[in-house]
Amino acid sequence: MNQEVAKEFSKQIIYRMNESTRMITLSFEQLIEEDVWKRPNANSNSIGNLILHLCGNITQYAIASLGNKQDKRQRNAEFEAEEGYSKKELLEKLMDTVDEAKNTIQNVSVSELLREREVQGFVFSGIGILIHVAEHYSYHTGQIAFWTKQLKDKKSLGFYDGIDLNIKNE
Predict the structure, then answer these.
(1) Which residues fall within 8 angstroms of residue 65, CB to CB, at 6 or more apart?
(2) 106 lies in some domain
(3) Organism's domain of life (predicted)?
(4) What total number of domains does the chain contain?
(5) Residue 169 falls within a domain, yes or no?
(6) The domain containing residue 21 runs over which residues?
(7) DSSP states of 24-93 as a string?
(8) pLDDT tens sequence for the chain (170 residues)
């Protein structure tokens, strides 16, 4: 893998992370304070849990593993929380985590992208880690959007307002 390909790959991962952050921010704008800790049922997670989970996962994979830092994640606590952060604090925590991850990603070397390491009992190259981070972030962004639509009885959250998504490829 050459440096040019590595930079483009990292750039695309960061783009996907920015898109998920944008969509979560739009979802949060439509929520009231009490909404972030509501659970659809006893066996489901609140939006607050999902944000804590995203911060833990992004930190463990992108910041600690890819950035060669100590892994201090407490995964169970992400799902056990029922309060402790306001809507604003959750969004700030997510943005700070994503910003730190993007900084790590922008500075990752080709050798780190290719090096395999163990994370959560799985073995991934740096490329595998970045794919996981982007897809995992996107997956839970969809859950947050779905739960926001349910809470607010909305068909659309405005993610693509003003964009014609019916334009055909040329």
Answers:
(1) 71, 117, 119, 124, 129
(2) yes
(3) Bacteria
(4) 1
(5) no
(6) 3-152
(7) HHHHHHT--GGGGG--SSTTS--HHHHHHHHHHHHIIIIIIITTT------HHHHHH-SSSS-HHHHHHH
(8) 689 999 999 999 999 999 999 999 999 999 999 999 999 898 999 999 999 999 999 999 999 999 999 999 999 999 999 999 999 999 999 999 999 999 999 999 999 999 999 999 999 999 999 999 999 999 999 999 999 999 999 999 999 999 999 999 98
